[in-house]
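Renewal narrative, Specific Aim 1. Our central claim is that a sequence can be written position by position from structural information alone. The example that follows is taken directly from our test logs and has not been curated for this report. It begins with the structure tokens describing the chain, in the order in which they were read.
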């Protein structure tokens, strides 16, 4: 394509990228030194655009940033440390961190997170420490959220809105050493059973296990979640509550009623069958008697001769 025909899409993207990272400027009011950018408590409302490409440590904590743009963040291919705590971030989308695959430390604590996509951390196979604590509106985590963070050694999930976790959520963390789960409203009902058993079988004891306690049901309130596996197994597998007994009673009554109706129908069918056979037999006997009488009237001599003895000469 000639220059006269206008710039192509590739050239536009290149120009746009160069405009975003023009030179090695430092964002306004931030401190840039030795591949480190510090924008702590600068009242930023959005992600700063003039961050040097060679940045390895980025501090955006204590601002009012509401989102992390993947396009801008992805330009920092050497980034290993990102601190975004105490901002207003509501959600992190698919591939937010797609360009920062070298990231080792990520802090998203004390934000307004309501959801984390299953693919958010999918490229962070080198991530060692992840903190998403103090996000009270984060009510759930997908079972594949940490599927690719196989290098994770430190995970902080304190003081969120989590009520339960899928037992598969932590299966892909073979080297995890430190896990915090306290301050969450854990509902230790039957849906929590698989995760409770996983904590026992995997010997994955949270660092704050005595403070990570159940809020429901009443009989398990205050119990550490690492110790409710066996009680839950009894309650959910071998124990029957009032609803279970009512259900069994209802099923028994249904079976009894169905059996009674079936027996009655069987009896009715048997009676009808016997009556039909009896009538058929009586009709056959009447018809046979009629035939004999007719034969006697038509062939009286022959009939009598059959029964007479031959005369002696």
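The sequence written for that structure reads:
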């Amino acid at each position: 394509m000639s220059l006269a025909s206008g710039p192509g899409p590739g050239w536009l993207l290149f120009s746009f990228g160069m405009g975003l990272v023009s030179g090695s400027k430092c964002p306004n009011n931030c401190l840039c030194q030795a591949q480190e950018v510090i924008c702590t408590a600068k009242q930023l409302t959005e992600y700063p655009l003039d961050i040097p490409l060679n940045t390895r440590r980025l501090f955006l904590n204590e601002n009012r940033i509401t989102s992390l743009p993947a396009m801008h963040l992805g330009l920092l291919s050497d980034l290993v440390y990102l601190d975004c705590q105490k901002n207003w971030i509501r959600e992190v989308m698919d591939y937010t961190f797609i360009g920062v695959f070298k990231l080792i430390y990520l802090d998203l604590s004390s934000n307004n997170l309501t959801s984390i996509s299953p693919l958010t951390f999918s490229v962070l196979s080198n991530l060692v420490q992840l903190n998403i604590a103090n996000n009270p509106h984060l009510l759930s985590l997908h079972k594949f959220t940490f599927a690719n963070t196989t290098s994770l050694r430190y995970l902080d999930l304190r003081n969120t809105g989590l009520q339960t976790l899928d037992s598969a959520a932590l299966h892909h963390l073979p080297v995890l050493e430190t896990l915090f789960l306290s301050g969450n409203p854990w509902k230790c009902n039957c849906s929590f059973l698989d995760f409770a058993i996983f904590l026992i079988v995997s010997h994955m004891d949270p660092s704050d296990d005595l403070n990570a306690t159940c809020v429901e049901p009443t009989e398990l309130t205050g119990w550490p979640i690492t110790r409710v596996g066996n009680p839950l197994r009894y309650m959910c597998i071998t124990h029957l509550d009032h609803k279970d007994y009512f259900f069994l009673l209802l099923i028994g009554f249904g079976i009894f009623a169905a059996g009674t109706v079936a027996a009655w129908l069987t009896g009715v069918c048997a009676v009808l069958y016997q009556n039909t056979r009896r009538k058929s037999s009586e009709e056959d006997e009447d018809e046979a008697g009629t035939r004999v009488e007719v034969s006697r009237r038509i062939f009286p001599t022959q009939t009598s001769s059959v029964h007479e003895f031959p005369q002696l000469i």
